[in-house]
Write a structure and sequence with these properties.
The protein is of the alpha+beta class. It is 16% helix and 31% strand. Strands 10, 12, 14, 15, 19, 21, 22 and 23 form an eight-stranded mixed beta sheet that branches. Strands 34-35-36-37-33-27-38 form a seven-stranded mixed beta sheet. Strands 39-42-41-40-43-44 form a six-stranded antiparallel barrel. A hairpin with a 4-residue loop joins strand 41 and strand 42. Helix 8 packs across helix 13. It is globular and about 75 Å long. The relative contact order is 0.09.
Length: 790
């Protein structure tokens, strides 16, 4: 504003665009693609002249093999500006494997007629590469790139794990980016259909065949509907019915696993969801229709309902004003005021839903044309459909992402899965793996009593493991953990918290000291390993933080008889502590049976509140370990324990769980594990120290126990009141078999946290139904921890 001349002049600025942070592929520059190749995995991708390849050893010390094959199917030296220099032994071993990515890479090469017998590779990175090391290569001519990340079975004691390699491709031509480039087929397609933007396509599928709906560029919805071909032939139009499906499943939409099927009005199953890499869809709204656009002021706008009517007309199916459908990738939800709302889809380029036809079907799929709101990210694009033969085999899976930026990884089976699958079909996804919920002929209550009175075995393989090695390992852990790691001797374990600078928790877990400069972190989240790696880089420390989750699977044997079970099967060398001498929070390296048995690490740790142990082994040895434990445990009444019973025993024992008792806004004091914060005995600085001092001196919330004078079920998130005022929330609850009452863990305002305080738990809207309760000491079960110490 200029006032020198007595005039007011405004200096206007041009408008700026909305700033929106986006994860994953949508955050990359146009023309850039990102791929992650897991340790022991492989990848095949087309490359073109002028493409820039950037390889990153994210965690360090991970060799990688690169093969480039020209379009003439020759392993020539002209494809890349670097020459292959070794026989591709690692690649040839991986490609013969049975993993999903090995199968897909093998299929991609077979489809192109490539013989790998004489393949030679370029080897990049080494056993001593620093974390974040990079190699850049330019493509000299069109071809196919194969990336293989060799691995060897990890010795639980040697920490020789294998870790991911990241590949960035900077395309020379941005026209053919990942946003239009279709992913490799899951198998050889029997149908390959493109659904162009703002259109719909109908197609027929036979019983047993698989239907894959692919979001090509991301953020694109696809309405999908199916009919039984047999019923259509009999003149009966009975499409998939969302209301029937929701009612039978008890879910908003089908998901891979037991609740996976969709039904028509006669409750006949039509399709079953096998894989889903997005996880957010809609079955509440109809496909978009002319009335929606008319009412929004866009009369005549193309819509999915009219497109469905046109696509289905050849089958004699009557037209409708609004088609019910499963709206894949459509992001809807219901808020606290019972309003349905929507936002941009969660789907990213290449995300898909894979279904199996349960009868002969007539199908229709659209590429939604909506461009007047965020339904398609304001930019409608194509959908692609592939159909695979009935004799193909696909495992049920959802998608797990380590971080919002990470590539999707399909749900895995732990190495113990086949053993537990003989005892139950009831599995659910946890942390990227399938884990059993409950077992045939027992159920959670019987499994609970087996843990309290005898012994149980449970699969804890999804726990995240990281190998921390190098001369600065102790320094890194001392800085990242709230415990005093310098006091830890080899063979000892300590339970600790890991915090951000503001005092909120990154994770909780255990640190194993394997040797002077060798540690293992076992926690619940991938973020904890990433966080430690970031701190090491920031401080310039000489240390590596490498994931070993897929190289080190573990079962827990818990209960009063657990020591008796393991004494019979675990052999330890003279320099290691024997099982019957192993104290609480100690571990030993040993073998199953004798000197020649499979190697294991046994720690006296657990998540049950009982005497217990955890056994860690390489996945290739998992079946042998389980069978030894199972056979030895039969005379002691050993029982498998699922997630439902595990939640009972851990709640009763006051053991906390991420996203229930804590998250990144919760400090260890508020989470009930203030004993892990060594403010007095740890002289070194650590992340969050100053914030934790402040939060300890001025607490706001406290984790407490509740006894509830009602048998009505209480749930996570239920509000806690004194009078009208809400003073806290329930974090976990259960009906305790041994205490014969409803109990809970809760976070309440410190002003009302005194033992004996009378409170009420609000149900319904928090006021119309109240359950009387009283604050008590926790843990409710064995508060002195005498049982795990026994």
């Amino acid at each position: 504003m200029n006032t020198h001349s007595g005039e007011f002049k405004l200096f206007l600025q041009p408008p700026s665009p909305s700033l929106v942070g986006r994860p994953g592929p949508l955050a990359l520059p146009v023309g850039t693609e990102r791929y992650t190749v897991e340790g022991g995995g492989s990848l095949a991708v087309d490359i073109e002249t002028g493409d820039k390849l950037e390889f990153v050893d994210k965690e360090g010390r991970q060799p990688c093999e690169i093969l480039a094959i020209g379009r003439d199917l020759g392993f020539g030296t002209q494809v890349l500006d670097a020459n292959p220099d070794i026989d591709a032994i690692g690649f040839k071993t991986i490609i013969q494997g049975q993993s999903e990515d090995s199968r897909r890479t093998r299929m991609a090469l077979e489809r192109r007629g490539i013989d790998i017998g004489k393949a030679r590779a370029l080897r990049i990175f080494s056993d001593n590469s620093p974390a974040g090391d990079q190699v850049k290569i330019t493509v000299q001519r069109d071809g196919i790139l194969v990336v293989a990340v060799p691995d060897n079975p990890m010795d639980p004691e040697l920490q020789n794990t294998s870790t991911p390699i990241e590949l960035l491709i900077h395309r020379s031509s941005i026209v053919k980016t990942a946003r239009t480039r279709l992913p490799e087929p899951l198998a050889e397609p029997v149908q390959d259909l493109r659904v162009a933007t703002a259109s719909a396509e109908s197609f027929c599928v036979k019983a047993g065949e698989y239907i894959q709906i692919i979001d090509v560029e991301g953020r694109q919805c696809s309405d999908f509907q199916v009919f039984s071909r047999r019923k259509l032939d009999n003149g009966r139009e009975l499409p998939l019915d969302a209301t029937i499906t929701r009612s039978l499943l008890g879910l908003a939409n089908p998901i891979p696993g037991l609740p996976s099927k969709s039904f028509d009005l006669e409750m006949d199953a039509l399709v079953e969801v096998i894989q889903d890499t997005c996880g957010r869809h809609d079955v509440f709204m109809t496909a978009c229709n002319s009335r929606y656009y008319d009412d929004m002021g866009y009369p005549g706008h193309v819509n999915c309902t009219d497109n469905f009517n046109g696509a289905l007309s050849s089958f004699g199916i009557g037209q409708r004003a609004g088609w019910e459908a499963i709206n894949f990738f459509y992001n809807t939800n219901i808020d606290g005021q019972n309003q349905i709302y929507f936002d941009e889809p969660w789907s990213r380029p290449g995300d898909y839903v894979l279904m199996r036809a349960l009868t002969d079907l007539v199908c229709v799929a659209s590429a939604c044309p909506c461009d007047i709101d965020a339904a398609n990210g304001w930019n409608p694009t194509d959908i692609h459909v592939r159909v695979y033969a009935a004799n193909e085999t696909f495992k049920k899976a959802t998608a797990f992402r380590m971080t919002p930026e990470s590539s999707a990884v399909l749900t895995k089976e732990t190495a113990f899965h086949s053993c537990f699958a003989e005892l139950t079909r009831d599995f659910s996804e946890y942390n990227g793996y399938w884990l059993p919920n409950r077992f045939n002929n027992t159920g959670p209550i019987e499994e609970y009593w087996a843990c309290r009175e005898r012994a149980v075995v449970m699969d804890l393989s999804p726990l995240r493991k990281f190998e921390i090695t190098g001369p600065d390992s102790e320094t890194l852990l001392q800085y990242c953990m709230t415990r005093n790691i310098r006091k830890l001797s080899p063979g000892q374990v300590v339970y600790t918290a890991m915090c951000y600078e503001h005092g909120g928790m990154v994770d909780d877990g255990t640190v194993f000291r394997i040797a002077e400069d060798n540690f293992r972190w076992v926690g619940g989240s991938d973020i904890s390993g990433i966080w430690m790696r970031e701190q090491a880089e920031k401080l310039g420390l000489k240390t590596w933080v490498r994931s070993s989750t897929d190289q080190l699977h573990n079962i827990a044997v818990q209960g009063p008889k657990s020591r008796d079970v393991l004494k019979e099967i675990v052999w330890t060398p003279p320099a290691q502590t024997a099982i019957d001498e192993l104290q609480w929070f100690r571990f030993a390296s040993g073998r199953i049976g004798n000197f020649h048995g499979v190697p294991i690490v046994v720690s006296r740790t657990g998540y049950s509140g009982e005497l217990g142990y955890e056994l860690f082994c390489h996945p290739k040895d998992a079946v042998a370990v389980f069978e030894a434990v199972w056979d030895a445990g039969q005379k002691y009444g050993l029982t498998p324990l699922g997630l439902e019973a595990l939640d009972l025993v851990r709640t009763e024992a006051g053991l906390i769980f991420k996203d229930y008792e804590f998250d990144d806004t919760t400090d260890p004091f508020e989470a009930g594990i203030g004993f892990t914060v060594a403010l007095k005995t740890k002289e070194d600085d650590f992340i969050g120290r100053e914030a934790l001092i402040e939060r300890k001196n001025h607490p706001q919330k406290k984790l407490v126990g509740l006894e509830i004078d009602s048998q009505v079920t209480v749930a996570n998130g239920d509000c806690i009141h004194i009078g009208r005022a809400q003073i806290g929330l329930v974090t976990s609850s259960m009906r305790s078999p041994i205490l014969k009452k409803n109990i809970a863990l809760a976070r309440v305002d410190v002003a009302h946290a005194e033992i004996g305080t009378k409170v009420e738990i609000g149900k319904l809207d928090g006021h119309m139904k109240r359950l009387p309760a009283q604050i008590v000491r926790f843990p409710h079960y064995d508060p002195e921890k005498k049982k795990p110490r026994s």
